[in-house]
Amino acid sequence: MINSTVDDNGHAQIPDHQHHCHCCHFDSHNNNNNRQKPIPKCLPKRIILVRHGESEGNRDDAMYTVTPDYRIPLTPKGIGQAKEAGSRIFDVISDNGTSDNWKVYFYVSPYMRTRSTLREMGRAFSRRRVLGVREECRIREQDFGNFQVAERMKVIKETRERFGRFFYRFPEGESAADVYDRVSSFLESLWRDIDMNRLHHDPNDDLNLVIISHGLASRVFLMKWFKWTVEQFEYLNNLGNCEFRVIQLGLGGEYSLAVHHTEEEMLEWGLSPEMISDQKWRAHANRSSWNDKCPWYLDAFFDHLANSDDDDYDEVKSNFSD
Q: Which GO terms of the molecular function aspect are on file (predicted)?
């Protein structure tokens, strides 16, 4: 069984026995068990989620009635957005041109608008910077059915708002929960690629993964990564065209949105104050202390937990007798 490089809570993990990746080197050789374990350098420094540029479907819903969703192209505005996004992402991963030891690997949805977005973004990068690119069907757009009749889709989307965005399944299509399942499968494959060094990454270079996808797929990726609840997902706002989110590895070995993004940005995206507090903690956290630092996560599921078996014994017992 292959050891995951990152566990289900998004924590960098050090394998307990032989590791399949030949690129892992460690920052120190301190065997003191009381100290934080070093982080393998094979871990990506950043994972950047990008939504495609403006498409003809974004501009005019009628496009979906005559063109299959996967074949809808970018608008001229969307092409410009993609070029600008490539330049902005180059600035992020090169630290505004001050860093030289970095490489980038791309994953892209198979839809025309995402592939075109990647093509235009790629103009910002030289060939020597790009480790590779892979088309990945599991990060495609939510399936809304085949050709979409405008009036019918309006009624369906109104029904979705009443039912709930995560669990509502489009007739002949998918729910956000379905997208979550395939994005989760993609994440497992991604970490196997890293664990076995299938990306052929030199540990002397910072590895940056850029995933060009769609609004919903990006949101459920974040939901899976940070273990957000369905209720928390429902409050998230969609990414704008060519907007991106940077998940970056903090000094303590946790991945966080707060390394690159501001609190104001996260509020605009729909993160609650508790979620933002967690992101800030992750930006500087020690990998071994997660369970001690997330009472808000427990509070989302329990109305009351005693601090110890002896605390509030009478109150707890009275709750059972009510």
A: catalytic activity
Residue-level length of the chain: 322
Region 46-58+74-143+174-249: CATH code: 3.40.50.1240
> Is 9 a residue whose pLDDT tops 80?
no
b or e along 166-186 (b: 16 or more beta carbons within 10 Å of the residue's beta carbon)? bebebeebbbbbbbbebbbeb
pLDDT in tens, 38-96: 555 589 999 999 999 999 999 998 898 889 999 999 999 999 999 999 999 999 999 99
pTM: 0.82
Residues 6+ apart with CB under 8 A from 101: 204, 205, 206
- Both tokens of residue 159? 């029904």
261 is catalytic: no
200 is catalytic: no
Q: Single out the catalytic residue among 19, 52, 214, 261.
A: 52
The pLDDT of residue 131: 96
* Marked catalytic residue, from 54, 136, 141, 254: 141
